[in-house]
Amino acid sequence: MRIVMIGAGYVGLFSGACLADFGNEVVCVEVDANKVASLRQGRVPIYEPGLSELVLTNQSARRLSFTTSLKAAGRGAQAIFITVGTPSLAEVGSADLQYVHDAAREIAEVVDDFTVVVIKSTVPIGAGDEVDRIIAERAPRGSFAVVSNPEFLREGAAIQDFKRPDRVVIGVEDDRGREVMREIYRPIERNGGPIVYTSRRSAEMIKYAANVFLAMKVTFINEIADLCERVGADVLDVSHGIGLDDRIGRRFLNPGPGFGGSCFPKDTLALTKLAADAKAPIRLVETLVDVNDKRKTAMAAKVVTACGGSVAGKRIAVLGLTYKPKTDDMRDAPSLVIVPELQAAGARIVAYDPEGVRTAKPLLPGIEFAENAYACLRGADAAVIVTEWDEFRALDLARVKAALATPTIIDLRNIYPIRAMRAHGFRYVCVGRGFGGEG
Length: 439
Ligand SMILES: NC(=O)c1ccc[n+]([C@@H]2O[C@H](COP(=O)([O-])OP(=O)(O)OC[C@H]3O[C@@H](n4cnc5c(N)ncnc54)[C@H](O)[C@@H]3O)[C@@H](O)[C@H]2O)c1
Prior knowledge:
Blueprint: E1 2-6, H1 10-21, E2 25-29, H2 33-40, H3 51-60, E3 64-67, H4 70-74, E4 79-82, H5 98-108, E5 115-119, H6 127-138, E6 144-148, H7 158-163, E7 168-171, H8 175-184, H9 186-190, E8 195-198, H10 200-231, H11 235-243, H12 264-277, H13 283-306, E9 315-319, H14 335-344, E10 348-352, H15 357-360, E11 368-369, H16 373-377, E12 382-385, H17 397-403, E13 408-411, H18 418-423, E14 427-429
Parallel strand pairs: 1-2, 1-4, 2-3, 4-5, 5-6, 7-8, 9-10, 9-12, 10-11, 12-13, 13-14
Helix pairs in contact: 1-3, 5-6, 10-12, 10-13, 12-13, 13-14
């Protein structure tokens, strides 16, 4: 099958590469000419485990290619996926659909034989109708069907999520469109991946509801963690104890510095706007957006408290900057609030991140970057673990202690056992584990 992806960002690139790996001929169309140039030379601009290899293999097999022009790529394609960004509209918070609408206008110029237009970008409910209208208006003789196929990948495990997903959701109301989608996802169906067919609007809703529910779990356990610190309980035992209940589930119950990333912050916000506009406000989600925003600032305050009430003139080592491990994605990362708050309080920041330094540098001015974790810790008055990269999980604690000027560690991801930290003579402050997070 000949498939086009519009947008070679995170979603377009990895889903394009995975669909090529299934044997399809995939062309990724991308407006950013620099991105296309580096992809053509085999340089993948984002860090995602296994992605470079997948792109290179399929490029050399001539199943995957990159271009800036939809005109040439789009003709004769059975499916054109829209995978462009849908960021928050500044000051409003709803999803900005300008890139999706641009893509729809470009598609209208190339559809003639039956083409399935697949919206993979996360879009508000009803956006598919608008894309349908834009294309129909400009290409009245074109034959096409607009389908919703939201993406549920987790950055850091994206390839596995695409090839062995919990489910694929397809919102389609056209029989020919359904057949093309079934063909595209046949390899996944054969692997036992459940495919959910529904209406276009329901598919759009499923994506928002799923993301918001997960964001709610994270926010819930963060608030329980705060309470644990007041009443002297251990949130890790609490999340284990509740997570064993099948109805609750164990995942997304790890307390931390608040959620970030390319999806949860903008999608939670977009759903609150959408719900308010539909006169069905979801107060639970409005509250979680507010709680999560405040949490990042509260984490900076936690560091200040752990440092004796002031960080002025102190050297603070920050381990991890990306919003989660195994990605170089800095979008809405908690570090983008925590680090500037500490700088504003007078701290000098030295940071290390295994993959995120290139993306973090322009976003975090005035900080020093270290080559590795131990170099980062050297001479610091305190260390803050912001992202739980695997390489921070088993640091040589004797070396850590020797490197730090003051043995204070604020672990916002709870990756170390309290007892071991005590035994090594650290002042160890974590999240939700006993009074004040001090065990
Ligand atoms: N990143 C994730 O983990 C994830 C997961 C699920 C869903 N999503 C959703 O998928 C969508 C894309 O997210 P992303 O993270 O891949 O975004 P991204 O910003 O990484 O990529 C979007 C790409 O589209 C390109 N683009 C924009 N307009 C274009 C056009 N007219 N023609 C060609 N290229 C164009 C941009 O230059 C950019 O490279 C969003 O709606 C997002 O919410 C993302």
